[in-house]
Amino acid sequence: MPEGDTVWRTARRLDQALSGYPLTVSDFRVPQYATLDLVGQIPHETVSRGKHILTRLDDVSVHTHLKMEGAWHVYRPRSPWRSPAFQARVVLGNEHWVAVGFRLGIVEVVPHAALEERLGHLGPDVLGPDWSAEEALRRLRRHPDVSVGEALLDQRNLAGIGNMYKAEACFLLGIHPETPVGRLDVLPALVDRAQRLVSANKERAEQTTTGNTRRGERMWVYGRAGQPCRRCGSTIRSTHQGAPGLERVTFWCPACQPVTGT
C-alpha cells in the first residue's frame, strides 16, 4: 500500500491538473455512480488526508483511496493511457488535462457534511496541517499492550505511516517491531522520526531513508530480508505481524533491534 508521501504527491498532481477549471469529462466506472455527471462543476482543490484523496467541488468531494494497487495518472487530452481502460474507475478532465484513477480501492462521492463520518476516525496526518505529535502519542498510548509495529500502521493513531516507514523508523531507533507500546520510553522520538522520514520524502520520486538514492541502497531494513545489516552485518529478518487477515511483513535487524518486553 502506498505511503503517505506517495498519496500526498498524487493529490498535489491532481490539484495542479484539475483545480480551477470546469470539468469537461466526468466518467465514474463503478456501479454506484455510473449515472453521475459532474461536467461543468469546478474542482476547488485536491488534498490528501493520510492515505485518502479528496477532490473538493462545490457541494461534494470525490473520495478515493489507492489501497494496494491503485494509481492516478494525468494525461493530456487524447493521449494514450499507460494502463488498460478496463482498469479505470474514475475519469475527470478539463480542456487541459485528463485524470484517470486506475484500480482504486475506494471511489465515492460524498457531501462535504458527511466527510467527518467517513474520515473522522483518522489520527493526525503526518503531512497535514492538523499534525500534532502530542495527539498521536495520546492515541498510541491508549493501547499499551499493542505492538509498536501494529500501532504505527493503525491510521486511527496517526495517518500516513505505512509498512516501509514503520520498519525504517523502528530500525533507526533500535526498536523491535513487536515491542509493546507501553514499554517504549522513546515513543516520542519514534513518532518524531517517522513523521520526519515521510516529510523528507514527500518531494522525492524515489523514497530513501538512508540518504542514498541509488537502487538497492535506499533502505536500512525494509525489503532486505536475508541481506546484511548496513550497520552491523547481521542478517535482516522478516515475519508477518498483525491480526489475521491484516498481517503485514515486517523487517528488522536482530542485533540492532533486540527483542525486549514481549
Helix count, per DSSP? Answer: 6
Can you write the helix and strand succession as a string? Answer: HEEEEEEEEHHHHHEE
What coarse outline follows from CA principal-axis ratios? globular
Mean pLDDT over the residues? 95
Structural class: alpha+beta
CATH class of the largest domain: Mainly Alpha
- Content of β-strand: 15-25%
Structural summary, described in words:
The structure is a single chain. By secondary structure, the chain is of the alpha+beta class. It has two domains: 116 residues, N-terminal domain of MutM-like DNA repair proteins (Alpha-Beta Barrel), CATH 3.20.190; 120 residues, Orthogonal Bundle (Helicase, Ruva Protein, domain 3), CATH 1.10.8.50. Helices cover 23% and strands 20% of the residues. The chain contains six helices and ten strands. The chain has a four-stranded antiparallel β-sheet, with helices on one face. It has a four-stranded antiparallel β-sheet with strand order 2-3-4-8, with helices on one face. A hairpin with a 4-residue loop joins β6 and β7. α3 packs across α6 and α5 packs across α6. The chain is globular. It starts with a helix and ends in a 10-residue tail after the last strand.
Please sum up the structure shown:
With 262 residues, the protein is an alpha+beta fold.
What distinguishing features does this structure have?
262 residues; alpha+beta; N-terminal domain of MutM-like DNA repair proteins; Helicase, Ruva Protein, domain 3; 2 domains; 4-stranded antiparallel sheet; 6 helices; 10 strands
